[in-house]
What does this fold into?
Amino acid sequence: MARQATGEITSLWAVPGIVRKCRFLLEQLFPAASYMKERYPGEWLAWAYAKRIGSGLLNRART
It folds into this structure.
């Protein structure tokens, strides 16, 4: 888990400027709706985001 977090932090620091860093974080947390509809077909969009965040947290807790 520490290695993955280090990689994510390194990616964040590589992005120039605070506005771009914020945009990067938002894109990581909430990808484009088109991606979410493709990844979770037939799901209500808000539910798809909740499932993605929940599964991500579970995966990080396991490692």
The chain has a mean pLDDT of 85. The radius of gyration is 13 Å. The chain has two domains: 1-30, 31-63.
